[in-house]
Amino acid sequence: MNDFYQLKATSLQGKDISFADFENKVVLIVNTASECGFTYQYEGLQKLHQQYSDQGLVIIGFPCNQFGKQEPGDAKQIEQGCLINYGVDFVMAEKVDVKGESAHPVFNYLTEQLPGMLGKKIKWNFTKFLIGRDGKAIKRFAPTTKPEAVESYIVNALG
Asked: Which of 17, 60, 131, 134 has an alpha carbon within 20 to 30 A of 158's alpha carbon?
């Protein structure tokens, strides 16, 4: 089994997320923040989720407060903000660190597989990682890359 499928996380609601459940699916992982200049990207991510989830796309948002303290809320506040402001119903994980010694294992894995311009570091909120149906990392997208610009890669990965 691919290493990606060994990963686990916890949802905002405190439920286990086993990445083994994503076998044969295309996964887009995004570190998010509610008070970021890129927060509007939730809307584009939700559109991708609505358009492609039936074809096998899974989007997972990981709230993070490491960049400019732009995700100060608790799980309930994050969930309400995502739902009320953007209608988000894709998977949202609990708030995590995405860099440094306390980085979540998902982001340690992703930055190892897809280093960016700053090496294994994540530059800012809304960095995106696309994983193929085989669990292999396909591409990393900068925070400034809008979800619409990722769509062609998703379509290609969905086959």
From this structure: 17
Tell me if the pTM is above 0.85.
yes
Where do the H-state alpha helices sit in 16-68?
A: 41-52
The C-alpha angle with vertex 74 and arms to 70 and 77, in degrees rounded to 5, equals 85
The structure tokens 């900068």 sit at 142
Half-sphere exposure (CA, 13 Å, Cβ side) for 120? 13
Q: Is 82 a catalytic residue?
A: no
Give 32-62 pLDDT, tens digit per residue: 998 888 888 999 999 999 999 999 999 999 9
Given 36, 98, 103, 110, the catalytic residue = 36
CA 120, distance to chain mean position in Å, is 16
Short-list 37, 13, 3, 2, CA closest to 108: 3
